[in-house]
Amino acid sequence: MNAGARANDRMRTGPAVPGAVLQLLLVVVAAGGAVLLIPVAGWQFIVVGTALLGMLFPQSLGGWLSILCLAIGMLMADPGIWQAMVAVAVAHIMCALCTLLPLVPWRGRVVLRALRPSLYRLLAVQAVAQPLTAAAMLVQREDGFRLAALAGAVATTAFAVLFLLRTRVRSQHP
To answer: Is residue 132 predicted with pLDDT exceeding 90?
Structure first.
């Protein structure tokens, strides 16, 4: 093979992150969630340890076990509204990462544009899940029923707007 042919052996892609960053992100998100949400240090270590197991061996399903341990650890205290909302976001982010980990090699690179659909799905689900979580937590309060009805109405409206925007985009692109 001559030198001219080798010069064309490269493929240009957009900005990318190393696969190890996505792998480590699972443990970072799990550790952050554990510190914010779990009052017992033992359960914090269990959450981070199972996330580490899920990072090193994605087939072990350790990442999903970490989500379960996060939820069990939260039972040690009565969570507030903000803690419940953070827990929903952390669990969803960890679930999305656990889905990607078996597909991304440690030494590989992931083009950021390829992650865009996953990010859009994450944001769309959170746009609906967060107001519903707030509504569910507000119902537990004595004065919370009115606030929960308002939060539920906002969540329903947001879902309808997202649905209409999505159908409009799809109808414009045949």
So the answer is: no
